[in-house]
Design brief:
Low-confidence stretches: 123-135
Helix content: over 70%
Structural class: mainly alpha
Number of domains: 1
Radius of gyration: 22 Å
Distance between the termini: 89 Å
Number of helices: 10
Number of strands: 0
Length: about 240
């Protein structure tokens, strides 16, 4: 008697599942690449994230990197919210969006106040805690970056718009996973690069020479951005 051709059902299922994943990724790949490119461009554009990282990095490389990490984690959270539909629910309720904008504006104004205060009371740039030093706790710096990102309403609206390029109700979980993780990797790379560049020797030397002016400039920019968020919703 000849040998029977015995096939392993689980092996066949694994091969078929892998094939389906590859086919789905190939189908959504152009949309994913578009989202990745748009996300990188958005990161490069100066805004609260840029100011938060730079203002911390010129003071301390450790603080700058941790702020960058906090912002990146916030980016991943917003991307996940948008991809799973949570951001859509938030946008439906106008009062929730307005409250979030006022909260975000208030936090930026608070950062600006601390930066301006340092110009008058100390030679040190005070950004987060009342007497931030190079030994500022890791959690405080990480929290600062996370709050900057999570209280920015424009971030929520951006992710709501950008994820619609690649995500639909019929999108498989593998595409949602790739979108969120891909954007998180891009965020970590770019924001950490900013922190390292602005904490380098030349950048720090420039900062030390013009410390009061730079502190004042960061304070004014933070407050300007914060007031715009607040007053755009009150009037």
């Amino acid at each position: 008697m000849g040998k029977k051709n015995i096939q392993n059902p689980s092996c066949n299922n694994l091969i078929w599942s892998t094939y389906m994943y590859i086919e789905e990724i190939y189908y959504f790949l152009p949309s994913l690449v578009t989202v990745y490119a748009a996300t990188l461009v958005a990161f490069i554009s100066p805004g609260p994230n840029f100011l938060g990282i730079v203002s911390s990095s010129v003071h301390s490389r450790k603080n700058g990197v941790l702020v960058a990490l906090g912002i990146s984690v916030g980016t991943g959270i917003w991307a996940l919210f948008a991809a799973t539909g949570i951001t859509t629910l938030l946008s439906i309720y106008e009062n929730a969006e307005i409250a979030m904008q006022i909260l975000g504006g208030g936090y930026l104004c608070w950062l600006g106040y601390k930066s301006l205060r340092s110009v008058f009371i100390s030679a040190k740039l005070i950004i987060d805690d009342g007497d931030q030093s190079e030994d500022s706790t890791a959690f405080a710096s990480f929290r600062k970056g996370l709050l900057i990102q999570m209280t920015n309403p424009k971030t929520a609206l951006y992710w709501l718009a950008i994820t619609s390029i690649a995500i639909s109700p019929a999108s498989p979980m593998i595409i949602i996973f790739l979108l969120v993780t891909g954007c998180l990797v891009i965020a970590v790379f770019w924001h950490a690069l900013l922190a390292l560049v602005f904490s380098s020797g030349p950048a720090r030397s420039f900062y030390l020479r013009l410390k009061p002016w730079i502190s004042g400039l960061f304070g004014i920019l933070f407050i300007t951005l914060g007031l715009r968020l607040v007053f755009n919703n009150l009037w």
